[in-house]
Write a structure and sequence with these properties.
Spore Coat Polysaccharide Biosynthesis Protein SpsA, Chain A, alpha/beta, 5-stranded mixed beta sheet, 39% helix, 3 domains
């Protein structure tokens, strides 16, 4: 179990894991340089549980690799169960995973049905498939009802390391996770395993609950690792039908973001996307120091005098929910409404409302709102001519897309050359503070 600043989850999570383990099993906790007192809490409450302190944040990939390296030193280790720290293991979660690896001798790993902690009957995912043309993840069962335990295991392309039982013997042939720090590390590992002839199985009878929210605010650090790692992933593992065209399409998308954010003065995200492109091209993986976002600004005082506030942030549902909560807490008497992109018309209002918009807001919002603020990086900017701004934004999107098509071709050729020989999996070799 990799722990990084997970103190609120440790009591429930570790207790649930220990209840599930068999007498011959051991729990090894990788403490990834937490700053919230996790290490001290672990030593005080579970002094008999093995603890490896890395001394710094190695990310999910580096933390799991460090733990697997320790586990493989044990000659009796046949299976390694990877777990996030913000989970609850439901009773009976381990035996179905072990059974699946016993039934399928060619199976390299088995993964659990992952449900939401607060809504245990709602699925986060049960493994995932990769789309054949663009190589995008298609999570099985996401947002749907929990599957019955009698549902048969399914062959998948990807299993989340949130709860992943690995056949340890296979690691000697496949290697560990790539040095991606976070995001796409388990995806790349799964594709490498499948290319080597192994299979991955999602097992509905094994259930864990995960403290997960799909409504996370857009953050520069998330965008960096997702864009960099997916670029490298597509260079390493072209999808079945899209082949190399998937990488070219993604590079066009990345260059479009770089140009558009630059022309719109979106400095933080322009730097983020540029760094993701540069590091993918040069093979600079692992952790990266990124510019911190500015502290969030206070809500504009003019919103407190409006009859209603619309929140129009397409593609940013986490930011929209965050703003709605802030408005309800600061001005509970003023109603606010998140405008869904699927709505064909604006919500009814007795008077002209105020609006908080993102970069891709709807023209109807700009037309009907009495005052419009753009929300970007936690800051609010008054738009004096929102309709004109909306038109300019669409023109810049088109120009950026045209320019991105030509700029992506040289990067496409460089990436194919750089990753032609594959990627050496990251294996930790440093000396840690407390050896197991």
């Amino acid at each position: 179990m990799v722990v990084w600043n997970g103190l609120p989850f440790l009591a429930e999570g570790i207790a649930s894991v220990l209840r599930e383990l068999r007498p011959q099993d051991d729990l090894l906790i990788i403490e990834n340089g937490s700053t919230d007192g996790s290490a001290e809490w672990l030593r005080q409450n579970y002094p008999d549980v093995a603890l490896l302190q890395t001394g710094c944040n190695l990310g999910g990939a580096g933390g799991f690799n460090a733990g697997m390296a320790i586990a493989l030193r044990c000659p009796r280790c046949r299976f390694i169960w990877l777990l996030d720290n913000d989970i609850i293991v439901e009773p009976g979660a381990l035996p179905p995973l072990l059974d699946q690896l016993a039934i399928e001798p060619n199976a390299v790993a088995a993964g659990s049905q992952i449900c939401l902690y607060q809504q245990p009957n709602i699925v986060q995912e049960i493994g995932a498939l990769l789309s054949p043309w663009l190589g995008a993840l298609q999570q099985r069962g996401a947002g749907g009802p929990r599957q019955n335990p009698d549902q048969p295991p399914a062959l998948v392309d990807y299993l989340a390391a949130c709860s992943l039982l690995i056949r340890s013997a296979a690691l000697h042939a496949i290697g560990f996770f790539p040095n991606f720090f976070i995001y796409y590390d388990d995806v790349e590992w799964g594709q490498r395993a499948r290319r080597a002839g192994w299979t991955l199985w999602a097992v509905p009878a094994s259930v864990i609950r995960h403290h997960f929210s799909g409504l996370k605010p857009v953050a520069a650090w998330r965008e960096y690792y997702r864009k960099r790692n997916r670029t490298v992933f597509l260079a390493l593992h072209p999808p079945r039908r899209g082949r190399q065209w998937a990488l070219l399409a993604y590079l066009i998308h990345l260059h479009h973001l770089i140009l558009y954010t630059h022309w719109r003065g979106h400095t933080l995200f322009h730097q983020t996307y540029s760094a993701a492109r540069h590091d993918a091209l040069t093979g600079q993986l692992g952790a990266r120091e990124l510019s911190p976002p500015p502290p969030p600004a206070s809500l504009p005082t003019s919103l407190q005098t409006c009859a209603m506030v619309w929140i129009d942030l397409p593609g940013q549902p986490g930011d929209a929910q965050l703003l709605a909560c802030r408005l309800q807490n600061s001005t509970p008497a003023i109603p606010c409404q998140i405008i869904d992109a699927a709505q064909s018309s604006c919500p009814a209002s007795t008077s002209r409302p105020a609006a908080i918009v993102g970069d891709n807001y709807r023209l109807h919002t700009a037309w009907h709102a009495v005052i419009v603020y753009r929300y970007r990086d936690g800051q609010f900017t008054l738009l004096r001519h929102p309709i004109r701004d909306h038109i300019i934004a669409h023109l810049l999107h088109g120009l950026a897309l045209l320019a991105a098509m030509s700029r992506a071709i040289p990067d496409f050729q460089r990436l194919r050359t750089r990753y032609r020989q594959g990627l050496t999996p990251f294996i930790p070799n440093k000396t840690y503070k407390n050896k197991y």
